[in-house]
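haha ok so turns out i had the wrong file open the whole time. this is the CORRECT one, sorry everyone. sequence first:
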Amino acid sequence: MAVNNSLVKKSNGRLGMAAYLNQDAVKNQINSILGSKRGISFITAVVSSVQANPALQECTQPSILQAALLGESLNLSPSASLGQYWIIPFNNKKKGVKEAQFQLGANGYKQLAMRTGQYKDIDFIEIREGEYKGRDKHTGKQVFEFIEDDDERESLNVVGYMAYFELLNGFRKSVYWTKAKMERHADQYSQAFSLEAYNKLKNGEIPASEMWKYSSYWYSNFAGMAEKTLIKHLLSKWGILSAELIAALDADYAVINEDGTKNYVETESDVIEMPVQEETQDEMTESSDIESTDAKDALFN
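then structure:
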């Protein structure tokens, strides 16, 4: 296997990722979980991922391996273009080392939900200016009227976010957060996000020399992080959860140890060049759900 020399042997004597994965004990662990044929392609994929991200090369190899093994066991792809899961480098200040953290993406949650065979539909939609019509006076639920012309919709400001699912048995559930609420949420739970800085960034008040500080996906892809937040919240509180989904929910934002235990280090670590953590599942206590007939008709028909 042709790999970058830095991945084989580090100048400080530490084994590179390729050499680490090809140790007998590590290969045996991989093969026992994946099988020998699948294990070979897995090792190649992990080495390529590490080679593509210099920050990952500084992380402990066991943490990289365990995060990748979990993603592989869930049959998800680490490809950034698919958005199913990521292996994220963090500075663990408590341990004084850099570790790799497993983070599931919105598309990973959707993929795992659809595999249960219980979901007819699951999706996320941005709510545009003028589409929110207040609350139904009888039910107290939010009412929406969606603009049909796509070009007209795209020209309007986003004022909120909605995630929803419909089961094959007809059960439907939706959650809606205003954009202001999502911004407050990110400001509260993301260690690398500042609402004050985000507003400055949107207004073009951040010097180009300081843009490297704002690589968090909450800055560069706010809608994508909002999607994951609502999809995760929706499924964890109201969805039908398979063993795979439960495992994914449990491992999201965790550094996975070799013995299978998990450390949720997000409050003690700094993200490196990648999206930061949002809340853990236990912290997801704030919600606003909707089941408006008008909204559901627009969403599910």
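DSSP finds twelve helices and eleven strands in the chain.
again sry for the mixup
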